[in-house]
Amino acid sequence: MQAQAIEARPRIEGKVNESRAAALLGLSTQKLRRLSEQSGLGRPDLENSGAQLVFTYAELYRLCRLVAEIRG
Q: What's the domain range around 14?
């Protein structure tokens, strides 16, 4: 049953949406948006009305390093 739930989620190849990125980084979506704005990483998801941000894996890696430095 869990496999069906995973398949039901929209998947964007090579990109991570903001809710998943926030969960992976241990941040709230608000903090992730603030960090994204400050760092210039991420972009609006134009395929889905632009209401959420999406991150490439490279951007997610850079955000992870920034969060690690902040928490230092």
A: 2-71
